[in-house]
User: Fold these one by one.
Assistant:
Number 1:
Amino acid sequence: MPYATQPTASHFINGQYVEDTAGDAIPVIYPATGAEIARVHAGTPSIVDQALAAAKAAQPAWAALTPRDRGRILTRAAQIIRERNHDLSVLETYDTGKPLQETLVADATSAADALEYFGGLAGTLTGEHIPLGEDWVYTVREALGVCVGIGAWNYPTQIACWKAAPALACGNTMVFKPSETTPLCALKIAEIMIEAGAPAGVFNVVQGMGETGAQLVTDPRVAKVSLTGSVPTGKRVYSAAASHMKHVTMELGGKSPLIIFDDADIDNAVGGAINGNFYSTGQVCSNGTRVFVHKAIKQQFLDRMKDRLANAVIGDPLNEATSFGPMVSERQLDIVMGYIEKGQSEGATLVTGGKRIDGNGFYIEPTVFADVTDDMTIAREEIFGPVLSVLDFEDEEEVIARANDTEFGLSAGVFTRDLARAHRVIARLEAGTCFINSYNDAPVEAPFGGVKASGVGRENSKAAIEHYSQLKTVYVRMGDVEAPF
Ligand code: NDP
């Protein structure tokens, strides 16, 4: 691999790199060229066992540290990540194909934000005192134990830290399994955690495919599973975890509505739709892929969108001028091309894009469809690629009903200059993470997650603490015990 500080083995367990070549080989493909740049091995049952044993052994002492001591370690990890942002961003670009222009500002930096935020929060986590006359109750906020994190391939560094930061702040330890498509970045985070002072075993990384994930999810040593992935995988993992009564957080897919009223600032609305459909080459779960545009401004919107897309710089992701990179894999490219063909065959109007770009990399043109109707496949299924669908509407009631007519409920956005309307509409949209005159901002201070099939629980913000800790209730009687006999 043309990168000096790549991870040196497949797994990171109990404070060190571990290799086991008995596991299936997983080639790491650089999406911009199709070349194999590294190779890791899936975790064998013995590797999974070692990782869980290390996490289990490390957890009591980690939970026994003062929360501020845990927080200081997370904050130090954040500092190291920021110092190495450039190197980590280059690695993220190799892992995912996302342009360096993006990875420099949205990946390792977002991981550092999470570690800093939850590192700072650690010292504030307390129970409460509940007076009951003479008697009283106090609650203790306890760690859950060993947590398993399972990641998707679109934000490998960010996902690892969005899960690890709150988990570790609360005194849990973690075994993280990255997506097999992007196995490299989480290993560097594990290295940095040790450098920052985390004891061995607190954060471990195991590679593997679905079976490795399934083994982690069902192990009795595991108290909680947090998955970022698709709805079908989420259903499988949720039910496997439920049969062992484990806690879960599910960050799953979406088909989110972005509603643009006729009084919207058109350039801002087009900018929001670009951020919500083409950033990370459209591989973002919260994307507003059903863009409902008021009929009165539809043509103006499409013309502006076409003009702005012509400015996309498509090419070498390592060139900082590039603003639009390849799909993460040939498989994902084929899936997206299949949806583009479906869009055309079902009668949507192709406004721009629609073709694979020649060469060895997995490039697709940014694609816009107009005249999309609610029943078309491209309006119903998550595509997870750079395909924006414009649906016409005229009436507020009508668009709210159509926006909600989906199994998903991750995100939703509204563009309008009428703020009363903006709040009225957002209040009725069935989505967990919403935007007014913006799209896809995800600051660590704000809860992130979905409703309906898009997920369970919340990541980021103080809300995440509820999902990585449990309350012990202690009733204290000050007087004598009264008993019936
Ligand atoms: P998948 O659902 O295919 O995989 C997610 C992870 O789960 C991978 O690490 C995968 O391993 C693992 N996995 C697969 N089967 C099992 C199983 N039975 N038990 C345990 N783990 C398993 O998603 P993708 O990686 O393809 O990611 C894209 C999806 O993620 C999209 O649908 C997107 O919407 C969603 N997503 C959601 C986000 C959110 O926060 N809501 C954010 C980003 C993405 P492997 O890949 O090795 O097979």
Number 2:
Amino acid sequence: MKNRIIIYFTAILLVFTSSLIAQEEKENLFVDSLLNKMTLEEKIGQLVELVTPKSVTKKMLSNGNVSSILGIKDADLANELQQIAVEESRLGIPLLFTNDVIHGYNTTFPIPLAEASSWNPELIEEACRIAAVEAASNGTHLTFAPVVDITRDPRWGRIAEGSGEDVYLGSILAKARVKGFQGNDLKDKSSIGACAKHYVAYGAAEAGKDYNTVDISEITLREIYLPPFKAAVGEGVVSIMSAFNDLNGIPASANYFTLTQILRNEWGFDGFVISDYNSIPELVNHRFAQNKAEAAAKALTAGVDMDIAGNDIKWSVYAPHLDSLITNNIISEDILNESVRRVLRIKYRLGLFENPYVDIEYYKTNMPSFEERQKTALQLAKESIVLLKNQDELLPLKKDLKSITVIGELADNIHHPLGPWNTAPILENVVTPLAGIKNYVSENTEVIYIKGCSVEGIDKSEFGEAIDAAKNSDVVIMIIGETREMSGEAASRSDIGIPGVQLDLVKEITKTGKPVVAVLMNGRPLTIPWLDESVPAILETWFLGDQTGNAVAEVLFGDYNPSGKLPATFPRNVGQIPLYYSHKSTGRPFNEDDKYTAKYLDVDVTPLYSFGYGLSYTQFEYADLRTSKEFYTKDENIDVVLEVTNTGKRNGEEVVQLYITDKFASVTRPVKELKDFQKVFFKAGETKKINFTITPDKLSFYDVYMNKIIEPGEFVISVGGNSHDYITTLFQIIE
Ligand code: GLC
């Protein structure tokens, strides 16, 4: 019987493997036979993306001079342009239509940093599925997402677009987003290709200044900045976008080591690499190329396959220069052919040769309902909210309070909840915090709204009106933070405090003695020591998209018990940056009783709020953490179990986080690293056994020779509701 089962499964495996090989052979045959028919001009055309349709002429399309267009958001226009490319060009190679679908297409979800606060990969994947089908129905084939840049510097505005500071969380969410966009079948009408960006280490820009220099060790590159890209490649991402930044002296968009040695030779990535917007001609600004022709040569040779040529083909560097570079034998045509092959391969995998046109009729009956999409947006928004403080359980508020005053420009603005990077948002779908609160409270509750002040500027003329209103209310809800323009691209801030005079207004309102709830709307961790000191309740809501107001109201009034956890550290002041939980020990770890240890004279060394931190309206207790035994070999899984109890009176979800410390190693290791987590629902009073399995790869690290190794020795497991409060146990790895 056993033999028959083995034979049966072997047969299935053989059939499956042979069908994969057959598919690959069929794909290679198609691509190579097409490539062999192409002229040099047509090959170069496949490496050019133009931005916005107005820059594209019919002649360019019929000559095959354009491969891809960024910014088409209309199915009819997409089909019109595609028809020229497919039916009026010599070889009929279809166009690829791209867009930046970062956190939703029509339905706007929370910004990625907010989504990361949910620690819910499945829900994030579901949101990306919705974004994919909305985008596909409007002609998009590929999104320039996910942003998988790790960053430890909240001055950097693009922290808003990624998953924060942690490699493990960032890698898990990179996979979830790629899977959400690409689905199980790239040719499915509800799937679009994904593009992991910005390759690589863009988030390590010195001083948090966007586009700035990056200079890090290879160990740091491999331990921190590369893994989320490797996770995306492992999930089958079809493209990668090369970054703007200089990386250890070689700009990321001309860096053979990262683009070819690592991405292709080590990881086996077979999709295509597209440059970030103008990053190839910017090699001249880096003073790494003397002119655009040299820039083109260096980028193509390093491994950048497609050039985003801006909104005019004259901005392209591949279009005008590759012809002469090839015909003058400065670059081998083999290099060009390999790049063209990769682009054709992905167009083939996306099914563009079989179905180049948007099937408009299909989406009329194959789109999730508006209600379903908004329901996902609301759930993800709720789970993205982080409760930072709740002194004397001020929250949740009663729904039948007599009077509530809501203050702040952000409370009543339909644009800011969308956050940075939107594709085709529908503004009438946006529920502002004020609207959400008004929808939620009883009809007997008076909700007074006073703007009080703008997010920016020094005008305090409306302070008096706000103070008067506050005096006559039971509670004051202050919606404060940043505008949506203060984070995202080219939006670094040297001071990450609350902008303008908003904090002054909070101080005036707290003088009334009325209870104040601060609701933050922002795209990065902010330095809020005064708020933490003086305001009884603080909610971090980031930018939550369409369902902002409903999510904020459900948390404020207790219909949803907040479960969010910070994906990035909140420093006490900007001088502490970079500040992150997985730091090294140093030779003089902080010791408050010893002057000569790693600390400051003027601020505590600890963060205001740690990575992984977030409160609930209930409480959780961790106990009885243990492994199945004490000694393990390098290739054994370590089974871990503990008990977590909801000791409060409310049901709630807890993100149970597992960190590992390698106590001694041949390379200095972080004090701890997140290696697993589970988001678990508990009824009030409920205790659950939580099991983790630590696989050997989670103990490995890069040694000085760049080998990924596991060394014998003692390891500490820390499990808790954040990176600062946990219980521990030990185990040993033996030779
Ligand atoms: C921008 C961004 C990149 C985006 C690209 C195309 O400059 O850096 O994230 O995908 O250009 O819009």
